[in-house]
Amino acid sequence: MIQELVPGRVAGWDSFEDQPRFTPHPAEAASLRSTAPARRQEFANGRYCAHRALRRLGTPAVAIPAGDRGAPQWPDQVVGSITHCPGYTAAVVARRTRISALGIDAEPHLPLPEDVLEFVARPEEHARVRRLLAERPGMRWDRLLFSAKESVYKTWFPVTGRFLGFHEAGIRIDPEAGTFSARIPDPGGTGPGLPEELTGRWRVSGDLVVTAIAVPAPEGER
Ligand SMILES: CC(C)(COP(=O)(O)OP(=O)(O)OC[C@H]1O[C@@H](n2cnc3c(N)ncnc32)[C@H](O)[C@@H]1OP(=O)(O)O)[C@@H](O)C(=O)NCCC(=O)NCCS
Questions:
Q1: How far apart are the CA of 139 and the centre of ligand 1, in A?
Q2: What span, in angstroms and rounded, lies between the C-alpha atoms of 194 and 172?
Q3: Is the CB of 86 under 6 A from ligand 1?
Q4: Separation CA 152–CA 219 (nearest Å)
Q5: Average of per-residue pLDDT across 75-99
Q6: What is the distance in A from the centroid of ligand 1 to the CA of 41?
Q7: In the predicted structure, residue 8 carries a pLDDT above the cut 70
Q8: Where do the CATH 3.90.470.20 domains begin and end in the chain?
Q9: Average pLDDT in the 175-191 region?
């Protein structure tokens, strides 16, 4: 499913089951602080998909330890992103010469708790989500908004090295086109390699909402 949300020059891999026989590289395992079995399993699932995606890209599946604030440390010439939620794991990777940044997120297609929506949504986003929920009730627009924000953060952080608060990006969902845009209204705040407006794709499939952002590299570098 993830491959449908990203351009062809991005290699994706996803899985709907745990990978109990997959052992992360020692450098990856060493970067994982938690000893909780569920967390160790989701981490292993993510690394499994990441290694598969790297191979699909034609790159050796080297260790991908966790770096600053939990961001995966990809090989120098590669950008990528990982997501996991119950019953689903995905990873995407691309050559840095073709894609500047990637961010993906998967969520269960369930209502977002009202207090979480209050916390993450700007007032205008909250109003748009309320309207969409009333007009098109088959879809959890609140959960999609949340997922889009998580994809924005995963795209943003590896490029800027800065935390981004939930209200710092303004998301607009296009309910027809299956796309969304994210405007980060701090001019210059996106740093080199990121435009002021990020655009992404979303999809609902089965019990899942999945979002993805792929930022093309500047023309000259491709
Ligand atoms: C880090 C965060 C985005 C993870 O999202 P999540 O929905 O909880 O979890 P997911 O399973 O989808 O993603 C987890 C994966 O994201 C990746 N990740 C974690 N921190 C990251 C970071 N700073 N930058 C990029 N990727 C990161 C990791 O690969 C992680 O999996 P792993 O630890 O097993 O390797 C989220 O917990 C968070 O801290 N959000 C606050 C910031 C934010 O979202 N701001 C919104 C701006 S509009």
A1: 23
A2: 18
A3: no
A4: 22
A5: 97
A6: 16
A7: yes
A8: 2-104
A9: 80
CATH no. of 2-104: 3.90.470.20
85 touches 97 (CB < 8 A): no
- Percentage of residues in the chain with pLDDT exceeding 70? 95
Q: Quickly state the pLDDT bin for 220 (edges 50, 70, 90).
A: low
Q: Which atom of ligand 1 is nearest to the CA of 104?
A: 12
Does 188 have pLDDT greater than 80? no
Strands (E), the chain: 11-15, 78-85, 88-95, 99-108, 170-174, 179-183, 197-205, 208-216
pLDDT at 212 over 50: yes
- Amino acid of residue 206: G
Eight-class DSSP state of 122:
-
Arithmetic mean of pLDDT, 98-122: 97
Q: Are 82 and 54 in contact (CB under 8 A)?
A: no
152 lines ligand 1 (CB under 6 A): yes
212 touches 104 (CB < 8 A): yes
**107 in helix, strand or coil?**
strand
What b/e sequence results for 166-181 when a residue is b if at least 16 CB atoms lie within 10 Å of its CB, and e otherwise?
bebbbbbbeeeeeebb
d(CA 49, CA 13): 5
Q: Percent helix, strand and coil across the chain, each rounded to 5?
A: 35, 25, 35
Q: Which CATH number fits domain 107-221: 3.40.630, 3.40.50, 1.10.10, 3.90.470?
A: 3.90.470
